[in-house]
Amino acid sequence: MQRSILLLMFIISLLPARLSLANDTTFTFIAHYRQDVPVTLDISTNAEVSTLDPALATDVVSTDIIENLFIGLTDLDPISGHVVPKLATHWETSDDGLTWTFHLRSDVLWQRYGPSTGAIEKLRPVVAEDVVYGIKRACDPRLNGYYGTVAAQIIAGCDVVNNATEATDTLVYGETIGVMAPDPATVIITLQFPASYFLAMTPLWMLRPVPKETISTYGDEWTRPGTIVTNGPYFVDEVTRGIQRVFVQNPRYPADLRSGDGNIERVKAVIVEDSGTAFALYQDHRLDAAGIPAAELQGMLGDTVYNKQIRQVFDLSVFYFGFMHDKPPFDNVHVRRAFSAIVDREAFITQVRSGLGLPMIHFTPPSIRHAPPINEIGIGFDPDYALSQLAEAGYPNCEGLPPIQILTYAGAGTWGEFLAAAAERHLGCTLDSFTVEQVEFSVLLRLIDTDTPLQDRPHIWTLGWSPNYPDANNFLGDVLGCTNTNRFRRPCSEVDTLLDQAAREQDPTLRDELYAEVEQAFFGEIGLFPIVPLYTRADYILIQPWYTGPFETDGIFTGVHWDARRIDMAAKLAAQA
After folding, report:
1. Are both 218 and 360 inside the same structural domain?
2. Alpha helices in 311-361 (DSSP H)
3. Strands (E), 352-444
4. Are residues 330 and 398 in the same domain?
């Protein structure tokens, strides 16, 4: 910076005294004297990162970051969504579909970045044993990782380990789990059954390699900035709770592994809890992207400048109210049915979501393989049905219903208020029977964890599920199946037999039929109603003219790819001047 400023002063000293500097000339000089400023993506978030550990991540905030810190055997192309090679150059499967063999490249490195110095410590190449260790570690029940239960549904032996009451290192890292490395460049994974969707699962973060030496040395602290060892396109520079997160580009990352022609050297995510503040920062050119507060949407759509910066983005995330099945009164299926049927999704989207979203009365959204036609299965809004179900549960007109706690993540408090008001209007409950509390997202995840004591867990909570691979099993099996993490504490039943049958079925037509039966068993007239599906998300976002990338397609199934995005830094600096 010092040299550039001196250069600018020298250039100015050579100009005639009478020469006035036009605005565009000033911008040119800004680009010159700030040429050492890294190409920076400035974004905001209202949520703290829960974890940077691939075996523990469950939320989009964490997985978006992990996507850029760690690479796995494969990845999803940010434009096409197709599975593409990453650490693995190619692979083959056995005739019976049970054994998958992946062949690895040798030029991907484990490295450690020093935030205080900017120094990069080259450790060693990533090898097959790192993949084996990462997968086996994900299966370890002692970690209590949500996605360990997902891996346990498909990888041979992972279920045995993940369900063990007393897991040991010998059990976890021995030969029980069907993953092995016959040599440094080969990984062999054996499945429990020939799942047709396994390749689509291989980009998942919990199947990615992690550095055993670092984890063994630092334990739970291994992901701290300055300690964490990664192999992806970016390093961790700073994580300061309540303030910001900063990441910097890895210059040694192989160029042919990049997800696109992105040029972003630094990513800075500031913590901004209020959407109005983020919107103001965007208008001041301090953020490269931002959401639009509901009160501002119509004005932005009608503005001749800002309407060119608006993108309408659809994703396949489905948001819902979850029920705690072991906490009265929601241990009673009739109560769950009643509270589901009082939700008018159209009104919810209009009043709470400013019209953004598509109503959902079953769980698997459109465009996911084996999803039923939207809203053809499920009860939906039916106050008469709700009243009859609540009466059958023994609470006619809400008489005798105990106090109910609704827990929401930050910013979703109006969701809980909407549900409480619906219970008052359609069931005869009183508003003072409900407590609506907003908490930071990572706190919500902790409070609904299966290990949290019953008295500390809420009756109802808000959450959303973003798909990890394009198959109905990712919604119905991975979220609602009783043998997964099962935050709902839902008892196993005949529907879980159907889920297992659907996952193993090879005929696509039969899989369509089986998953339709599962949706009916969950959300039909005599359904179990483990959750209240609300909507699949659609949103408007603002993107600055100098920021480009595959915004409409990137990050639908795994995290976003910063290396597929570009910033015209000269234009950005000019706008900020």
Report:
1. no
2. 333-341, 345-351
3. 358-359, 404-409, 434-439
4. yes
Q: Which residue type occupies 184?
A: P
Whether 17 and 76 map to the same domain: the answer is no
Q: What is the CATH number of the domain that holds 443?
A: 3.10.105.10
Residue 5 confidence (pLDDT): 31
β-strand 289-291 against 531-543: which pairing, if any?
Answer: antiparallel
Q: How far apart are the C-alpha atoms of 38 and 373, rounded to whole Å?
A: 47
Q: Are residues 381 and 250 in the same domain?
A: no
- Domain assignment present for residue 185? The answer is yes
Burial class (CB in 10 A: 0-12, 13-18, 19+), 522: buried
Are 30 and 90 members of one domain?
A: no
Between CA 294 and CA 318, with CA 558 as vertex, the angle to 5 degrees is 45
| CA neighbor of 54 nearest in space, from 145, 132, 124 | 145
Give the chain's domain count.
3
Q: What is the pLDDT of residue 516?
A: 97
Q: How far is 234 from 122, CA to CA, in rounded Å?
A: 14
Domain co-membership, 77 together with 98: yes
Q: How far is CA 197 from the centre of its chain?
A: 20
Which of 478, 479, 480, 474 lies closest to 493 in space, CA to CA? 480
The pair of structure tokens assigned to 504 is 């193993």
Q: How many residues does the chain have?
A: 577
| pLDDT attached to residue 36 | 77
Handedness of CA 567, 52, 185, 122 (dihedral sign): positive
Contacts of 520 (CB under 8 A, 6+ apart): 377, 527
The verdict on residue 576 lying in a domain is no
22, 50: one domain: no
Q: For tokens 């050579």, what's the residue?
A: 14
Q: Are residues 237 and 369 in the same domain?
A: no
pLDDT tens by residue, 303-315:
999 999 999 888 8
Which residues in the chain show pLDDT less than 50?
1-33
Distance CA 70, CA 253 (A): 11
Per-residue confidence (pLDDT) for residue 232, from 0 to 100: 98
Task: Report yes or no on 296 lying in a domain.
Answer: no
Task: Tell me which residue range forms the domain holding 32.
Answer: 2-36
Torsion angle, CA of 414/419/422/428, rounded to 10 degrees? -130
Rounded Cα gap, residues 238 and 309, in angstroms = 30
Q: Which residues, other chains included, contact 275 with Cβ-Cβ below 8 Å and sequence gap of 6+?
A: 46, 291, 293, 411
Domain for residue 372, yes or no? Answer: yes
Helical residues (DSSP H) of 263-353, grouped into ranges: 275-283, 297-302, 333-341, 345-351
